[in-house]
């Protein structure tokens, strides 16, 4: 009996490894087996979702598993707002601290409020999209920096921000309508057409720091994403 349980555990671990395709398989397996013994259901749900992108083919399956896991806190009440908010906080743990409160205000529910799967799905997808968005915005900023500067010219940043809104909306809609979409939102790639069309006579540059650029980018995210039905 113990051998059968061990075989099932190993099979599930291998399937999870093939499903996620992590960059560090050994670390992934170590975390996987640790989560098998985890009693904190929020931690288990976070584990199921933390490596996902909105383009991952197994995303819907993971959402269902995570929701089923986190609902086990109360069979009668189901998922409540306090636990749901705790999950969202952990999902965006690596995002800028000064933007987390603004982000959570758009998604959190009352602590005793029942959270349906549709609400859960929308909130988690938005959190995953937010993490992906922040990573790509940071990469875009590094590409906008010139001459080994730790800041980017303000006029380049303004061009990027103007294009970002449309790019974000199109990328999010594409992820929902097509299983075979690109693996990125396309935000980091905005630097190529912007820099390609630069003239030789550049204006005198005011420079923008990463925190300012990221803050303005997140404002665009918070403004545009509620318009998209995730």
UniProtKB/TrEMBL annotation:
One of its GO terms (molecular function) is microtubule binding. Residues 39-225 form the Tubulin polyglutamylase complex subunit 1-like C-terminal domain. InterPro entries: TPGS1, TPGS1_C. PANTHER family: TUBULIN POLYGLUTAMYLASE COMPLEX SUBUNIT 1 (PTHR31932:SF2). This is Tubulin polyglutamylase complex subunit 1-like C-terminal domain-containing protein.
